[in-house]
Write a structure and sequence with these properties.
Layout lengths: L6 H12 L2 H41 L4 H16 L2 H14 L9 H26 L3 H9 L4 H16 L1 H14 L15 H12 L3 H30 L31
Keywords: Amino-acid transport, Cell membrane, Membrane, Transmembrane, Transmembrane helix, Transport
Membrane topology: Multi-pass membrane protein
Main location: membrane
Length: 270
């Protein structure tokens, strides 16, 4: 018979493996000063790039011409179907190997490009569904006022469609933050390491998983506030501006004076 560890020792080993507070405290300074900033830069750059790509792709997807829709449909289907890790490697390793080096040898730019391409494919479908949910009469009314098709879409239809898909966009932005952890595969240089890269280095050095818990707390500090902020904005947009404070009701104990027509001086008229 094989002997098992006493429950007390097993629980102590479990806590020490995942919640070694000394190791977490040692890892936090580097996570915050270097990893958190780089994660924000990668995620923010990818989100901006993804939104720009998604708006263009969504407009193409809504075209009535099949040849116009086809390139956007291929792009969306391919990059939504590929695993994220393959896209990161194709962009960050494949492009430089093929001699296409828009960012030179700096892996930071390729990291933003890879996550942005993936984000754009998912966000394009979100925009398309939001724009299609707007009443067609909105576009017709804008065209009847003399606006061109592109101007009517940009000023009237697209803003309404984006407003309707804010929660879905928030979910995609949170996903972009989390997927930024995969850029560690590109071998970021010193000073460019994001949260997961730093935590993974500490795990390899100490053979303890507590640095991953510290990195997870940093990710949660980004994703949870973003979710609640967008949900609050969505609620405010749906409910509209708050009504002004109504005037205080008149005191019933005060005597009521009859209204007098303008130009009279109380009492009998002339």
């Amino acid at each position: 018979m094989t002997s098992s560890s006493p429950p007390g020792l097993a629980s102590e080993a479990l806590l020490n493996t995942f919640f070694n507070w000394d190791l977490i405290a040692q890892t936090f300074p580097r996570l915050i000063t270097e990893g958190l900033l780089n994660t924000l830069v990668i995620a923010a750059g990818a989100i901006v790039l993804g939104v720009v790509i998604a708006l263009l792709a969504a407009m193409l997807l809504l075209s009535e011409r099949r040849l116009v829709r086809l390139p956007a449909r291929v792009y969306v289907d391919v990059f939504r179907g590929l695993p994220v890790i393959i896209t990161v490697m194709l962009v960050g390793v494949g492009l430089p190997a093929a001699g296409i080096r828009p960012f030179g040898t700096d892996p930071f730019g390729y990291a933003i490009l890879a996550i942005g391409i993936i984000s754009g494919a998912y966000t394009a479908e979100i925009f398309r569904s939001g724009i299609q949910s707007v009443d067609p009469g909105q576009l017709q009314a804008a065209r009847s006022l003399g606006l061109s098709y592109l101007k009517a879409m940009r000023l009237v239809v697209v803003p309404q469609g984006i407003r309707r898909v804010l929660p879905a966009m928030a979910g995609q932005f949170v996903k972009d933050i989390k997927e930024s952890s995969l850029v560690y595969l590109l071998g970021l240089a010193a000073g460019q390491r994001e949260l997961y890269f730093i935590a993974q280095e500490e795990v390899a050095r100490t053979y303890n998983s507590s640095p991953l818990i510290a990195a997870g707390l940093c990710y949660l500090s980004l994703t949870i506030p973003m979710t609640y902020l967008v949900n609050h904005l969505d609620r405010r947009l749906r409910e509209g501006p708050r009504p002004a404070t109504p005037p205080a009701p008149a005191d019933p104990d005060l005597p009521k004076t009859p209204l007098q027509p303008a130009g009279t001086a109380g009492g009998e008229g002339r």
